[in-house]
Design goal:
With 538 residues, the protein is α+β, with helices and mostly antiparallel strands. The chain is built from eleven helices and 25 strands.
Length: 538
Amino acid sequence: MGGALINVDVIFERDLAVPMRDGVILSANLFRPADGKRVPVVMSVTPYGKDRQRDRLITFFMRMTGVRFGKIKVSRFTGFEAPDPLFWVRNGYAVMQTDVRGMHNSQGHAGVLTDRDAEDYYDVIEWAASQPWCDGGVGLSGVSYLAMSQWRVAALRPPHLKAIIPWEAASDLYRELAFHGGIPETGFVPTWWKNRMMRGRNKQFDFAEDFLVEIDHHPLADAYWRGKQTALERIDAPALVCASWSDQGLHTRGSLEAFERIGSPEKWLYTHGRKKWETYYEAEAVATQKRFLDHYLKGQDNGWCATPRVRIEVRKAYYRQDVRHEAHWPLPDTRFVPLYLDADQGALRVTPVATEAHIAYDATRAQAAFSLRFTEAVELTGAAKLHVWVSTSDGNDLDLFVVLKKFDERGREVFFSGYNGYRKDAVAKGWLRVSHRALDPSRSRPSRPYHSHDRLEKVSADEIVPVEIEILSSSTWFERASRLQITILGRDAARYPAFRHRHLINRGRHVIHCGGRFDSHLLVPLIRGAIRPSVGSS
């Protein structure tokens, strides 16, 4: 086969025509060793353009909106969120990236992670495995959309798919992308659709769907959203799954949910709390990816199977962390400790508060906060939950935003890397539109509520109702005399890059009811140390 020799050891073939089962042709780029040896393939499919490796306009736009990529060292041929082809080819692989259906140079009508897209990916894998430059083994790797698509195709079990590396990937587009706790996300999603998807469409074909219109037409978790979910339990390919504590509001929840649910008997979890793109390409992560693929695609006896199943990165502050390894996730020795909200003192208590009290705040501008000073160092790793009794002075619904924060012994907030590289993020976040408070009992756990989002349960003014709010997983070390604070408010807690909830329904004042019959409490995942009574918010 032909192709351009771009280095003494790498051949680059552009716009290979890959036929789909319905006759549509997808366009792919291939990088392979110049010596002509048959090798396994590291593959991704992308909606962002396989030929747009150096799209300075898009990069400039993302930086202007506050996105921070970190320090990334890759070759100029590396696609956005895709494996670096020169690195992998020089380590004995071919690298193939394909434009998804209807995007850029590929034919067809584009959608968002549709069943047809999954079938296309299946066909691309099997096509590549049959080519003379491939030894029959295919592995998948990529970040975000390039990882989400892996869930979809892996559930179809292509015969030549040997391993997957979904690096931070939502697995439920309703709960993790379009709506957070039933609250529509109105910053990132419209920006991504208009500036990345619509601009990248193959102009010869219309879209199969208008994603923003579909979001408006489907505010509940109905058949449309179920059609975009994956039967995760059907995935049986060996998997190296990355989940980030810092990508809350996009991929944190879905990565961990998928890791727990996929049927793969051989699966590993790699967690971190830093910038996702920088971490994907850093030396430690790439070495881990290489050992994984060398074992499953090349059959190397490199000790991979002795690798601990879970890598835990315990954050202390921004880009300050310790790493240890565990055998299981969720951590089986987790002690879920209730911390009761004390409205009179603005404190978190280790024992129930006897006296009923409440704290009110302006639903659009203010907040309520409760804190606990630790008498010894503790580690909190896993998902948290807020069980809280609430009411509103006006209207028939509430949008609640929950933020966990860390403060040092001098009362200064300790920040962490957050969404899209945001430098001043909190420990963890949760959301809920109160009319979406109904739980799915088959999926809920005592420590993790799972909301059905299939119906609305409005409230009356001053009606007091209990709600349970999932607070997304994190791993954080709290030193002795540091403080944990939970903040409850009616808006986004910070100006996250390209991330907003603008269409809120809050009016009047929100009231948090605590004590006595109102057993409002924060359930935290304690791993190390002990939580003892303290002076609360002092």
